Amino acid sequence: MLPNGAGGVPPVVHKYGGSSLASLGQVRAVAERVAAVYGSGQPVAVVVSARGDTTDRLLGLAQSVGAEAGGRETDQLLATGESASAALLAMALHHIGVPAVSLAGAQTGILATGAHGRGVIVAVDTETINEVLSRGAVAVVAGFQGLTDRRDVITLGRGGSDTTAVAVAAELGAARCEIYTDVDGVFTADPRILPSASILPVVDVGVMAEMSFAGAKVMHARAVELAALRGVDIHVRHSVRTGPGTVIAAREETKSDMLESRTTVTGVVLDSDVARVNLRFDAGDVDAAADVFAFLAQESLPVDMAALSDESTGVSIGITVHTDDVKPLSDFLTRRSGPPGRPLECDANITKLSLVGTGLLSRSDSTARLLTCLKSAAITPSSVSASQMRISVTVPDDDAVRAAQVLHDEFGLAQLDAAPGCTTPVPA
């Protein structure tokens, strides 16, 4: 890693999501914001996502010619979305008198490995970025992509630009990575679903990682985990409005500012893009669980709420997975069991509902309160898992929002103070 910017000063690192760059007016507004920081004398590196619905449109084009998702050529195509955003923002900066250089593909110095469409960053060579900064220009980096050891472009999967931004901030020695998006910060629940949700000024990075893995869309789990590992604070703010946003605290000096009296429960998270899968194997198939989880690891498929049952009638493995991951899992099961293959039992009409916080098992009433509230609202969960930082249940899709509201009220997370309790169930 070379010295950062002019005089070795660590740069400011911004990241702008696709919704913040969707129109040309928004691109110009982002350029003005970056120019203001640049004008203060600080070196600036900016990571960008593809504009608006560009990624979806490119995926549609790939599918229209019969391309398989996750292949090499699909990654080549998808990466052009972020590359175009980077070039366009650099041009907008030039127009207002700010020197800028867009970097994409091999120019970014981001090295990654893994399957196409699911790449994982292994290193960031910041030589080119630092060279741009040392010349007094803004480095505009295309997110979501890296280069394999075979020099193929590989995309980083969901939330890849967030991960790119945190990785770049860490390697450049920045204490904070600023994520600009279309929400005001991190809330106790999705405010588009629960209007009573309140914004969280500061969230511990470990709690945020759990919220992200549980389905909170504001930040991707891998980006938050990387921030925790490298000690980089993340500041989530609206790309247009001027509110304080939320600081995701990873550095010890930032965490020390958090009040010890914060409530045990931080937020309620819904994830409707999941399915509950049951895999059944013959009795005595001692390799079943190891083979399944080895496959999931090999394909970088995240799994949650795992349950294993080994009885005389057979081996049963229950897991919650992303809906996109059901097919590859089914294909694996067919290959392993041989034709015609053992069928996979799948319930896609469920939502994962998670209560996230700290010390949830230490306070033994947390799970009991959750289940009692759902019972009072006539909502029956189909599976439950609990840890110190997260309690998750799966509930029918039709009951998910009502269940989230019940728990949000029970654990006192609403903007307006209200006495907790489940005496009045939310109407169906």
Automatic annotation (TrEMBL):
The keyword Signal does not apply. It comes from the Bacteria. One of its GO terms (cellular component) is cytosol. Pathway: Amino-acid biosynthesis; L-methionine biosynthesis via de novo pathway; L-homoserine from L-aspartate: step 1/3; Amino-acid biosynthesis; L-threonine biosynthesis; L-threonine from L-aspartate: step 1/5; Amino-acid biosynthesis; L-lysine biosynthesis via DAP pathway; (S)-tetrahydrodipicolinate from L-aspartate: step 1/4. GO terms for molecular function: aspartate kinase activity; ATP binding. It is an enzyme of class 2 (transferase). This is Aspartokinase. It comes from Streptomyces murayamaensis.
